[in-house]
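Hi R.,

Here are the chain sequences for the assembly we discussed:
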Amino acid sequence: MKITMKEIAKMAGVSKSTVSRALNGSGYVSGEKKDEILKLVKIHNYVPDSKAINLSKSRTMTVALILPSTSGPFYGEVIRGFEEILAMERYFTLLMTFDSQEPPQKIRERYISLIRSKRVDGAAIFDPEVDGETVKEVINLGFPIVYIGESINGVSVDTIFIDNFNGSYSMMDHLIKVHGYNRIGFITGPANSFDSAERLRGYKYSLEDNHIEFNPSLVYRGDFTKESGKIMTDRCLADRVEAIFSSNDEMALGVIEELQRKGVKVGKDIAIAGFDDVFWSKYIHPPLTTVHQPMHSIGKMAAKTILDRINSNDVVKTPMRIVLSTRLIVRN
Amino acid sequence: MKITMKEIAKMAGVSKSTVSRALNGSGYVSGEKKDEILKLVKIHNYVPDSKAINLSKSRTMTVALILPSTSGPFYGEVIRGFEEILAMERYFTLLMTFDSQEPPQKIRERYISLIRSKRVDGAAIFDPEVDGETVKEVINLGFPIVYIGESINGVSVDTIFIDNFNGSYSMMDHLIKVHGYNRIGFITGPANSFDSAERLRGYKYSLEDNHIEFNPSLVYRGDFTKESGKIMTDRCLADRVEAIFSSNDEMALGVIEELQRKGVKVGKDIAIAGFDDVFWSKYIHPPLTTVHQPMHSIGKMAAKTILDRINSNDVVKTPMRIVLSTRLIVRN
DNA sequence: TCTTTATGTGAAACCGGTTCCATAAAGGGA
DNA sequence: TCCCTTTATGGAACCGGTTTCACATAAAGA
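And here is the predicted structure of the full complex:
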């Protein structure tokens, strides 16, 4: 059942070393012996055991992708981009997810121990609420690591994230300049969300640059769920905003449903804009104007960055901060 | 940088064997030595190299999940269910995807070689258009394998799939018995789709059981894309059907959009039903009546089945066919 | 007191490859 | 002809753990 290199060697009347060389094309092997070995390999369907290769080469050709979930509209795209690049370089993707129920400490313990056990050659980590201390601990492991989704300050680590600020800024610019709205409400995400904070910053700066005074009472704290969008709708209506800019599509959907329930005409009486461009945002009624996030590119860049680190012997390579642009999607 | 068991042993003044036993709790180790070893392990942050463990135990604690993609509404759910179960048993998930561009032969070559290289202890394969020959080849590798998404005939292999037939049957039953429709059009998927074929079968049997004659001219060949839904709409209208049952939600959406463009009242002049219950099907206007597919459960069952095979020393265990029920979602 | 039996430990083999090194024959240049 | 490469090959060490086995000692049973 399990044929090893040793047996191939015996059958071919050569040593293991020669079989290894023949298979890898390393070192010298005479033509005839090579043919004979390759013939036997084919006949017996021999495939080297990757566990042995991994050990002796001390690398696994595997990179971990660590993220909060695999469902929902984003992560699938990230995974796809990631896997796409890794597969091209003959690397494998080890997936690790953590659900938000799990205590943060446990989550980090899990992925740190994964990395320390050297089961993977590197890791891309998408841990939206990670703290600086953890990041430091992780990079001190001396492994190729890239953090996704957040700009981590004060720590030397490769990061890849989305330009939330400019995405938000340009959406506001659109609402103000193209549609002429002045009174625009903003629904934030949860307090600890870096993404949300950046989007709020874009909102503020755009107002300022357009000479509209920032009114804190038009900023509503949501939590990225549809439900919170619904809840905030009433308050927006009470404040008589002309447009609502929701910091994600999910809440925008909540707003739309609630408005429709109340008989308010979305897009006429009040305008809605979202952020994310999740895949259903073009299917809802009316289609949602939103900011597209290049999740697929994020996955690809993460993979490229990691491979770059793995293949670079230059240990002291300067960490990079890769910012990917968003794109305004105008629909309604 | 890299501390090994040997060095821990030397520092503790014991042999590797003792360290190994202390760490794994196997065999006898005296209390004091154990404490001393554990102390050193903690101090030096020692974590055994999983590559070495893998080799000597000849298992990897890793299971492959092989599927066509990671994006879209389905696969994320499958992955989530799969990973969820594996993580609980301290197994890892190795993800492998293939895009539809790639020639089928290459795809299979890739995953067969993955399995043969013994990089994983088992694999769940979601390969919708796999042929019987390939499946035979795969199971002859003697590895724990489960095929997802399709009932494979004549081959002894664990399979997990959705009850497309009954899902379709009960939708038809609903349309006929509850709404009293007699003239129902059916839009199929592509010719090679097993799912689509089963749904068509459900359509036919339900007609038969309800004493309505099957009319082949009311079956329209689509290809699961929204576009093909649009295209078929005209023909449905020409044939003056009372209801259209689309074999997936995507095409149903195409139909709805096309009907609305033509000014036909969806739900009044003509009824539409879909299949899949994708995320957005409840958000479109009007909300779509459809058949829910338990993708999350599929992932979970696949993982459980694989783990079961891995942990069972009973080699000749009878293959299982696990059929997961669909659920009718009535919305409009 | 004399076996058994339970406990504790290290040397060495093993998992299945890669790689270093010594050795040797063949070919090429002076 | 002599010396130096280049080509070929096998033995042995190594990667970093696990596991078997032999042996030693202490506790328990007869």
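The longest helix of chain A spans residues 72-88. The longest strand of chain A covers residues 62-67.

Let me know if anything looks off.

Best,
T.
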